[in-house]
Amino acid sequence: MCDRSSNDREGILVGCGNPLLDISAIVPMDFLQKYEMKEDDAILAEERHMPIYRELVDGFQAEFLAGGSVQNSLRIAQWILGQPKVAVFFGCVGEDEYADILMEKARSAGLDVHYQIKKDVPTGTCAVLITGTHRSLCANLAAANNFTIDHLDQPLNKALVDNALYYYISGFFLTVNPPSIMQVAATALAKQRPFLMNLSAPFISQFYMAPLLAVMPYVDIIFGNEAEAHAFATAQGWPTEDLREIGKRLVALDKLNPARPRIAILTQGCDPVLLIQRDSVEEFPVTRLAVHEIVDTNGAGDAFVGGFLSQFVQGKSLDVCIRCGNYAAGHIIKNPGCTYTGEPQFVE
């Protein structure tokens, strides 16, 4: 497979995504209504949403967090692994104070970040609106939207991609640069290394199905929650509401490497995680938290993937990977934003 020793983990995991500075605050319901948003929305900002970021900073006790789905997952994986620079992250930022904050926070979390820098565009931001145990996201991709494939073609970056053993990209990145996704996916296929992807949000299946279907034949493991899986099924015209059946259909979609059958991992909030393989569906229970323990569900899905990846890159079994994903998600929910405290306590 490769000539690297199992102890040499530096750079084995490459992720591409949208680096965003999360601006997180507790807001009243009428704040959501003002911006025509619903609880648990995950949307891209339109012109009418642009004042939201300054309003959060000026009018609420907003916190800054290094965000973006893939960057979150890789930070969580790094926290659990406890060894810096296992994960390499690519994305695009501006040349501004927000980019400096992002870089500092990502590197202090152990990530090896290789941002593409666009001088004339601001760094992307994401409004994280917390209403009770719900959170709504409104992302202004800004510079993150400007990632170009030539960044991956630079010799240092190309070497990092070529030398990785695992690849993870979010569906969100389909809105930015599908050619980059296809290039990384093709590298993974050529080197017979796992390529993992996330359905990310219902709007991806609703509006970006063509590029999603183009990359799906390369995908070895697909993650999603129940809303994302249902959106995919609806967009495909599948006559089913049954999450298990949707998962079976996901794994049965065309695949370029039949030697590694696709796996679907679907989360359902506090209901069991479904592990769907060609001829089996397994359930993994989620530890239910008391209401008073739930601080913020923001980032729970990202944390699940991060926990999963932390074990997957160590060659652990899928059940261990999923249990670590559940552990990480449960930990994150007890903290504001996609943040963690103390040393990880996952027991295999």
Description:
- It comes from Drosophila pseudoobscura pseudoobscura (Fruit fly).
- It is an enzyme of class 2 (transferase).
- InterPro entries: Adenokinase, Carboh/pur_kinase_PfkB_CS, PfkB_dom, Ribokinase-like.
- The structure is a single chain.
- The strands form 2 sheets. A 9-stranded mixed β-sheet has the order 6-5-1-9-10-11-12-13-14, with helices on both faces. It has a 5-stranded mixed β-sheet with strand order 3-8-7-2-4.
- Helix 7 links the parallel strand 9 and strand 10.
- Helices cover 37% and strands 23% of the residues.
- The longest helix is centred in the last third of the chain and has 16 residues, at 318-333.
- It has helices spanning 29-34, 52-59, 69-81, 97-108, 150-153, 155-163, 178-190, 202-207, 209-215, 226-236, 243-252, 300-312, 318-333, and strands spanning 13-16, 20-26, 42-44, 63-67, 87-94, 112-118, 125-131, 134-140, 166-170, 195-198, 221-225, 263-268, 271-277, 280-284.
- Helix 3 (69-81) packs across helix 12 and helix 12 (300-312) runs antiparallel to helix 13.
- 48% of the residues are buried.
- With 348 residues, the protein is α/β, with parallel strands linked by helices.
- It has a single domain, classed as Ribokinase (UDP-N-acetylmuramoyl-L-alanine:D-glutamate ligase), CATH 3.40.1190.
- It starts with 12 loop residues before the first strand and ends in a 15-residue tail after the last helix.
